[in-house]
């Protein structure tokens, strides 16, 4: 009887993984394409000079909301992915390492998606990483995703479709820089709600945000010392 129970557990586990894979696929198919189209369409409108400034701001807000929703969908799909869970069972990899690997993959997808969106809107440039993402604690990776989203959103809202550059540096600190040409001086992002929220988030980690105009190029630098990020997100776990 005990042998039957031991044999039943793997079958139940495989059935559960198959069901999760099916759910993840359904969520992805139902929402990702629609949210991507909505975000792209709103971002194009936000960058279109035929609309007045108030309308462009509203389009940008809708694009941001759609982008946030798309990120959440992708996060859920990754959490439901059976591949990571199967790997954990078969290799004994810790939950923390699985979480870090998941977020690294999500960050890389964020980079590819952001480059694609900017390219579709007429921008040329790249988003690059200088350093090893695997050395970052999980909270720092999550923070990098948040900062990247805000910097790309600012490029779309305020930038002239031209060359841009976003770089993520990893050493004793996490530093993320962006450079892009702005459309007009009246549309500089330093007074916007997004940058204000970014400053507050960075301050919580004892970091700094500098933003300045150099000719017609807007330059933003976000720097946070890595020691101010906890190294384990499972701080409530016993043992």
Notes on the protein architecture:
This protein is 59% helix and 19% strand. The chain has helices at residues 2-46, 53-80, 82-91, 95-120, 138-158, 193-204; strands at residues 124-130, 159-170, 173-182, 208-214, 217-225. α1 packs antiparallel against α2 (53-80) and α4 packs parallel to α5. The longest helix is centred in the N-terminal third of the chain and has 45 residues, at 2-46.
Number of DSSP-assigned strands:
5
Number of helix segments?
A: 6
The proportion of residues forming helix, as a percent range, comes to 55-70%
Widest sheet, order of strands: 1-2-3-5-4
User: Regions with pLDDT < 50 over 5+ consecutive residues?
Assistant: 84-93, 185-191, 232-239
Category from helices, strands and their pairing: alpha+beta
- How confident is the prediction overall: mean pLDDT? 77
Main sheet record: 5 strands, mixed
N- to C-terminal distance? 33 Å
Judging from the principal axes of the Cα atoms, what is the shape? globular
H/E element order:
HHHHEHEEHEE
Radius of gyration: 21 Å
Strand content range: 15-25%
